[in-house]
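Query structure, 180 tokens:
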């Protein structure tokens, strides 16, 4: 199946990743997109974000796919942004994005979470040992979760091990809490 030139340009510009919206805007039909996924030409890396199967995953592709997943208002911040602009020699182990605050909790309760589904008021936290061990980190995590829940959000917490050892269970839980 031929892929329109506009889609080829997007894939080249974005390290081999593309969002569903971009693919459809570039001329693919939903059926053609489904065929590319079914035959393995494209691989789903996030909901509605895909990578060419023939492209080796890179840090750039990971960052771009995360930004596409988060939506147009997502901006890479912190050490990740410093690395992106060549100010740091090595990519950080954790990426931070900022988004538009429309629909977010009031400023007094706005806190950072690993992934927020603003329209559904659902926050996901991935707790790895490196960043979440010790009494101070635990106390900060509990306070943050309480602040987000007090603002009317649902919070689901996972360990990094949950994600690595049971990715299907993780995805099923996320789909369940988002009712998708």
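Result returned for the query:
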């Amino acid at each position: 199946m031929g892929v329109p030139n506009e889609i080829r340009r997007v894939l080249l510009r974005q390290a081999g990743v593309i969002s569903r919206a971009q693919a459809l805007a570039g001329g693919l039909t939903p059926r053609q997109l489904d065929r590319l996924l079914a035959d393995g030409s494209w691989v789903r890396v996030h909901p509605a974000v895909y990578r060419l199967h023939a492209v080796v995953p890179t840090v750039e592709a990971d960052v771009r796919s995360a930004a596409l997943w988060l939506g147009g208002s997502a901006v890479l911040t912190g050490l990740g942004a410093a690395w992106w602009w060549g100010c740091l020699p090595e990519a950080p182990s954790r990426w931070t994005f900022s988004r538009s605050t429309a629909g977010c909790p009031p400023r007094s309760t706005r806190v950072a979470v690993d992934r927020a589904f603003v329209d559904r008021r659902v926050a996901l936290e991935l707790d790895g040992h490196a960043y979440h061990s010790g009494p101070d980190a635990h106390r900060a995590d509990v306070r943050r979760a309480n602040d987000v829940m007090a603002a009317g959000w649902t919070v689901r917490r996972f360990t990094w091990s949950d994600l690595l050892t049971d990715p299907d269970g993780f995805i099923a839980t996320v789909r369940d809490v988002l009712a998708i």
